[in-house]
Amino acid sequence: MSYFSVEPDGSSKNKILISSILFMGLGHLLFLKQYVKGIFFGVIEIVFLIFSPQIYLKLVDLVTLGTPHPELPIKERDHSMFMMIDGVVIIAVIFVFILLYVFSIKSAQSDYKEFCILGKLPRAGSLLSELGNKAFPVTGLVPMILLVLFFVIVPLVFSALVAFTNYSAPKNIPPNNTVDWVGLDNFRALFGGDATWTSALGRVAAWTLIWATLATVTCYAGGMLMAVILQESKIKIKPFFRSIFILPYAVPSVVSMLIWRNLLNGSFGTVNRTLIAFGLIDKTTVIPWLSDPTLAKVMAVLINLWAGFPYFMLLTMGTMTSISREQYEAADMDGASKYKAFRHITLPQVLYQTTPLIIMSFTHNINNFGAIFFLTAGDPVMADSTITSARGTDIMVTWIYKLTITLMKYNYASVLAVCIFVILAPFAIWNFRRTQSFKEGTL
């Protein structure tokens, strides 16, 4: 009996496994006679081996991030950031190759198991048939997985790796200079190593959480309040009021925020000029709507409420239409007031269906760049703003923008981005898992 023959009693399992581990597709070629599949896997490994020297060099570049060559023209010097992104892409390619290698081994084992059950080897040209039937879910997911890997995960990993380098102006901006790995030095500087930066981080982080909470709660409460009023009111022009309330949401937020910024300008804004014209304030004591740290924060929350409550109003009204009127009729027969009906019928069911969107709104507000930047630009100036560029109403995302555009401290900006992700991702996952909307069962 030939060594390359297989028996349907399971005795050939080990040699198929070993041959598949030694080289991709070898088990398919030698034992299972699946030449198309074996050649497909084999070509993948051959191509990988051909390019392995270049892969090795890219990994070395990722470790070193280049060598300074001041004697060369700038265009010919090592660009550390290009080396980093190339290295991250190569790691992703290696990861895909390992997955394919494991898949080829599993495929050989699965085909041999099927041979043991059916008593005959799979047809030599069964690859296309398998891709269209048994492996169709995997085949359909592969393009999406590759897109997520190379267009989502790779950029995220690259952005996170910058936090462990000294990529910042003026000494470490490629290609004029190279960038070096510095480990956790940037984290130490922001979290206690430098009093100025630590103070700025604490102030901005605290305001970011306060802002996200207030912006979410006020918009949701305001939207629900207006939805209930419009739902319960008996006026005949309710559609007109719905249209009016939707206008702030329909207008682009950039335009709205810039208009409010001019209206609330302390020196020549329309609001102060109107108050002066009515004699409510004096010309010498104009209200610093956006130049006082506390008042500017209050105005940011209020104007965000004006711009954001229509979304939750529409959402709540749509949810309320799905609540059976029989529940309200039963409550009315039991003598329940409007408030009790709202508290025990409307509110629980609306919350049940909208909690995931509340969580999404909270995460959105943490990164709500436009609401802060276009309204206040982060103003007013604080004591450490010259050094850190963090101002009175800056949230984390607007501070990151200023660190990259103004100070060119990409390493510190990356640290902040990593912090946002580390805090926000587990929080969002935990909340979604606890949300009953994602669980089977009753309220």
Quickly list its features.
mainly alpha; MetI-like fold; 0% strand; 443 residues; single chain
What does this structure look like?
The protein is an all-alpha fold and 443 residues long. It folds into two domains: 13-183, no CATH class; 187-438, Orthogonal Bundle (MetI-like fold), CATH 1.10.3720.10. It has 19 helices and no strands. It has helices at residues 13-22, 26-30, 35-50, 52-64, 80-118, 127-132, 136-162, 185-193, 195-232, 238-250, 253-263, 270-277, 293-320, 325-333, 338-366, 369-376, 385-388, 396-407, 410-434. The radius of gyration is 31 Å and the shape is flat. The N and C termini lie far apart (67 Å).
Structure class: mainly alpha
Mean pLDDT: 87
Strand content bin: under 5%
CATH superfamily of the largest domain: MetI-like
Continuous helix count: 19
The level of helicity is: 55-70%
Q: Major sheet, described briefly? A: none
Using the coordinates shown, work out and report the CATH topology of the largest domain: MetI-like fold
SSE order, as H and E?
A: HHHHHHHHHHHHHHHHHHH
**Radius of gyration (Å):** 31 Å
The CA-CA distance between the termini, in Å, is 67 Å
CATH class of the largest domain: Mainly Alpha
